[in-house]
Amino acid sequence: MPFKSRLNPHVDQARAHAAQWARQMGMFDEEYAQWPQRWSEEKFAGADFPLFIALTHPDADARELDLVTDWHVALWFVDDLFLPLYRRDHDHESAAAQVERLMLFLPLDGLPRPLEPGNPVERAFADLWTGTAATMSPLWRRRFVASVRRFLDGVLWELEHVDHAVTDLIEYLGARRDFGGLQFTAVLMEHAMGELRPDVLRHRELRTAVDAFVDAISLHNDIVSYDREVEEGTVGNNGVEVARQALSLNRRDATALVDGLLTARVDTLTQSSEVVPPEATRFVESLQEALAGSYLWHELTSRFDQARATAGTVGKPRGLGTSAAYAFCGALRN
Q1: Is 165 left (phi over 0), alpha (psi -120 to 50) or beta?
Q2: Does a structural domain hold residue 208?
Q3: Stated pTM of the model
């Protein structure tokens, strides 16, 4: 990892806010806390989603950090629960209908609609969208809504493929890039930094940088989440497993192959800051910092390590005044 991560100083406030907000949305209600086991107040604290946002948005002010954290928590909730809940009953039709209804809560004019939210995700979208859209252009709103739609379509795609996994590595990588939530992350970064102009967005070099950022985080996540996904029975949609099956490799060699692809994408992102339009340089540097922050979050969180879930991150100092502990740890690891 050639980049350095920085920690947003408002991380402790974001932790307190995110837990309270998720509770208000109903994400800790009993029906969700029991399926899967990792979505409960205790597991939520151990995953430390606000730390991920604080490491990937180090310069956001406190209000913006809360907003970005809430959006990501909402999508993590979808990712963690839509697949298990709908997969349990093999109810693809209801899952697709739910996605269509969710999009009704993201009108392009940014104005509230007379819709009564019926679940935590609908409440989250209704709560967040009007304020998010208020200061952004219609073009950005369309891009943001499209990124949410792509993510939700990805959840549907994974639901359809979890029992019939992709066996071609190139197809898998394309689907991971198209459907993963990281395109959403990249678009949302502009909410605090300022919108990129349409002519800048059209530059091939910038699109290459965003794709490299998305691919790098996705491939890294595949490597570190492999054991967890084996336990959950969802490993068929993991790049290491796709490589293992497609190329008849053992796990070590499949991991090495994916790691090679990951390294190549990091190298691409390294070079991108030198070739993008000047107006996009700071944005690409933010992608680089965010990638380093994602690496560190994966090391610190209990989300990907069952042993650490009971003995590691949950036991780290938490609450007001503990940011320095994470910053110090980040300095050591970087």
Answers
A1: beta
A2: yes
A3: 0.88
pLDDT in tens, 177-203: 887 788 999 999 999 999 999 999 999
Six-digit token string for 173 = 């990588």
Strand, helix or coil for residue 244:
helix
Cα–Cα distance for residue pair 185/49, rounded to 1 Å: 13
Q: Is residue 20 part of a domain?
A: yes
Q: Would residue 2 count as lying in a domain? A: no
**Average pLDDT over the chain, rounded to whole?**
87
| Contact indicator for 200, 279 with CB cutoff of 8 Å | yes
Helix (H, G, I), strand (E, B) or coil at 100: helix
**Domain extent at residue 113:** 11-322
Phi-psi group of 113: left, alpha or beta (phi > 0 → left; psi -120 to 50 → alpha; rest → beta):
beta
Task: Label residue 312 by pLDDT band (50, 70, 90).
Answer: very low
Rounded to the nearest 10 degrees, the angle between the axes of helix 62-88 and helix 92-103 is 160
The amino acid present at 128, given as its one-letter code, is L
Q: How far is CA 5 from CA 86, 133, 260, 263, 330, in A?
A: 37, 28, 22, 17, 7
Report how far residue 238's alpha carbon sits from residue 260's, in angstroms, rounded to the nearest whole number. 16
CA–chain centroid gap for 36, Å, is 18
Q: How many Å apart are CA 298 and CA 70, to the nearest integer?
A: 19
The answer to whether residue 122 sits within a structural domain is: yes
- What contacts 180, CB < 8 A, 6 or more positions away? 151, 154, 214, 218
**CATH number of the domain that residue 107 is part of:** 1.10.600.10
